[in-house]
Amino acid sequence: MSHTLFARLSAYIAKGKALARESDTNKPFGGVNVILLSDFHQFPPVAGSRNAPLFWPCNSSKDSAEELLGRKLCEEFSIERASKSHRPRLVGLAATHPSCPPIDFTTPPWNEAVLVTPRHAVPYDTFQGRPLTLSERFAVATKNQRKHREKHDERAALPNKLELAKGTKVMATFNVETDLDMANGAGKITEIVR
How far apart are CA 85 and CA 57, in angstroms? Predict the structure, then answer.
């Protein structure tokens, strides 16, 4: 993730919350609590400058105001390292864990929550001609995750079947040489292969 993308992400969320009259536009990310997971320091952003990654210090004489803001936002986060001893506690917090109390998706705040799924499935019941409820969207999303988890190829941890729409912009990368920060692959879907 780059400094610029991080700053833009904060601005977009703040703008969305402001349009809904739900935020303090003076706060980063519109006052929304943000948790970043994963290793954002593994590789520099693709097609970015050498000093674009969040972990790279900014140069106030060379970097844009947006890059400086992105770095400043990054520095406001506290960084925690999860060890194997933390895993049972973190897994127990997952909504799908048996010890987690069931969530009633028909009551606030859950009935108005935004649910983003990896596949961004269309939340519409084509048989009944109505949008899916949040609980129905959650059920569809978790069903797809379980189904795909079962079909992953051991070698590359990718599903054996990957559904994409023609013209979709994609970036499929494979770590070629991690010591040199090299990854390969980028492009878009140009034809349907059956």
Answer: 32
Residue 59 DSSP one-character state: -
Rounded to an integer, what distance in angstroms lies between the CA atom of residue 193 and that of residue 154?
A: 23
What the block records as the tokens of 183 is 């990854």
Does residue 159 have a cis bond before it (omega within 30 degrees)?
A: no
The whole-angstrom separation of Cα 66 and Cα 74 is: 12
- 25-73 per-position pLDDT tens digit: 678 888 888 777 665 555 555 556 666 777 677 788 888 888 888 888 8
Type of residue found at 132 = L
Closest CA to 151 of 168, 134, 165, 163: 163
* C-alpha span between 131 and 124 (Å, rounded): 4
Domain extent listing, the chain = 84-163
pTM beyond 0.85: no
Residue recorded with tokens 């084509």: 126
Distances (CA, A) of 81 to 37, 74, 78: 10, 16, 10
